[in-house]
Specification:
This protein is α/β, with parallel strands linked by helices. Helix content is 49%, strand content 16%. The structure holds BIS(adenosine)-5'-pentaphosphate (AP5).
């Protein structure tokens, strides 16, 4: 089974992706995480990606598509993947159709004011990929899951989030209609509690 998670920045894609991937034994592929890993290791891809990400813009389609196609060709993707943050443009979605068959597109719908609050208060762990909110963990610098250091993403500030939301509305939101037309879209209310959202996703997938 191959699943795409769609949703605005901070809509909870990463949070739900971990749970869905574990439940259905899927390989979780987050393009944002791959870019951040490349930025940390100062690879050529990372150096280019950083200039776009820091501004809240999308990394160019050709680079992103090549990166995802290569990642999906690896053996750990053979039994199914959960795509978190890809595709983000119609061009990426059309390219994806040439190298993967998608079973569900889960679209997390969250109001804009919640998104800004969620993103600004987010703390992330590069070691285990966990994301947390200061409302729940306070000002600790230690990852509650693996004990490594938490960090505040450079693009998690109000100015960049506002730009990321504008980019999302212009370039990524149209994907909901694209996948609705293909009969693959499942809309999920992302304003609920984390475990309630996960329950709704499981119901949608298993009652299909
Ligand atoms: P990426 O890392 O994918 O960022 P994003 O889409 O902006 O999504 P986020 O990671 O910000 O949020 P999320 O939806 O995963 O929310 P989370 O679960 O953490 O991409 C970063 C950048 O890379 C992009 O801006 C772009 O430049 C580039 N990029 C990536 N993919 C690309 C592509 N395909 N093409 C081109 N460029 C690309 O939750 C957020 C917070 O809310 C957390 O603190 C969490 O604890 C909390 N939370 C989650 N759910 C709930 C809930 N239900 N209730 C309360 N709090 C919650």
């Amino acid at each position: 089974m191959n699943i795409i998670l769609l949703g605005a920045p901070g809509s909870g894609k990463g949070t739900q992706a971990t749970r869905i991937a574990e439940k259905y034994s899927l390989t979780h592929i987050s393009t944002g995480d791959i870019f951040r890993e490349n930025i940390k290791n100062q690879t050529g891809l990372g150096i280019i990606a950083k200039t776009y990400i820091d501004e809240g813009h999308l990394v160019p389609d050709d680079l992103t598509i090549r990166m995802v196609e290569e990642r999906l060709s690896r053996p750990d993707c053979a039994n199914g993947v959960l795509l978190d943050g890809f595709p983000r443009t119609i061009s990426q979605a059309e390219a994806l159709e040439k190298f993967a068959k998608i079973d569900y597109v889960i679209n997390l719908e969250v109001s804009a004011d919640r998104i800004v609050k969620r993103v600004i208060g987010r703390r992330s762990c590069l070691a285990c990929g966990g994301t947390f909110h200061i409302d729940f963990i306070g000002d600790t610098k230690v990852c509650p899951t693996c004990g490594k250091e938490l960090y505040h993403r450079a693009d998690d500030n109000e100015e960049t989030v506002t730009e990321r939301l504008a980019v999302y509305n212009a370039q990524t939101r149209p994907l909901a209609d694209f996948y609705l037309g293909k009969g693959l879209l499942v809309n999920i209310d992302g304003d609920k509690d984390i475990e309630d959202i996960f329950g709704d996703i499981v119901k949608a997938v298993e009652n299909d």
